[in-house]
Fold:
Amino acid sequence: MHRFANPARFLRLATIILPWAALLSVGLFIAGLWLALFNSPGDYQQGDTVRIMYVHVPAAWMSMFTYSSMAVAAACALVWRHPLAEVYARAAAPIGAGFTLLCLVTGSLWGEPMWGTWWVWDARLTSVLILFFLYLGFMALVNAFDDPVRANRAGSILLLVGAVNVPIIKFSVDWWNTLHQPASVFRMGGPTIHPDMLWPLLLMALAFQTYFVAVVILRMRAELADAKIQTLRMARASAQG
Amino acid sequence: MSETMKEFLAMGGYAPYVWGSYGLALVLLLVLLVASVAGLRSRERTLAALEAANPRRRRRKADAAAGGDGGEGAAMLPMTGGRSKGGQNDGTDADAGGGE
Structure:
């Protein structure tokens, strides 16, 4: 039963964090959306399409944050056999895939009016598309095994191998100079974006982050309940035999 | 509808792109949230049903040590297992059975 010791502590902590994360997320979304839609200027070149940024960029950041955190969890799972690490990776994957899809589609919706094309096989777009497939691949892989131990092991290895894609996404705009613009917030020398646009962007990013925390807690609780269900059924099956 | 409201909704002529982005974000985040809550609820129900069907589980080890049977709970397995989540359960049952 010692393997439930850690999850038990996590569940207590999660119960405390969940309502705060949910509340904070709602508040940040309201403030962020108000600034993004009503109280921020249009871009001098892009007009109102710049407002797509307040969804597109937080989704992109979260898609990379989620994958990176899953890769760290995979390392913890493989090295220290931490029982919660694999639970976290499984729980976070669909959310990360959702963020990545949102990033890709809003990018298309922004690209069509501004670049004149929905899609281009440039390094940034292609590497983010690969990230999306990595999420889908991970979810398919961990559900393809009957044995959860083997499933989690295979999933963790996939996550670690795929982690090489994260720096490629980050630096693709510097290494290959194509249609996608380079970073304007997290860059050497500070942000080059006006505070009137930076604030709604940061608020929306925090809203996405707190949303992620709340939903990942819900999903981890579901995964833990699932594991308990399996254990109970196994115990009954062996008691029967 | 007022003039400013119309202007706001028009988004400088880019309405489909801007509102499409925000609309998709809303739909995606809501679907993910609702699906996660529903998944948690259904598993908690299954778990509660399983635990209710076998309240003696906590004493199982003590029973086993004392040569107890535990047959009463086990007899219910095909019922509860088959009802709630058949596909996944079949695999684990077969594995456990094969190992005996």
Summary: Chain A has one domain: 49-234. DSSP finds seven helices and no strands in chain A.
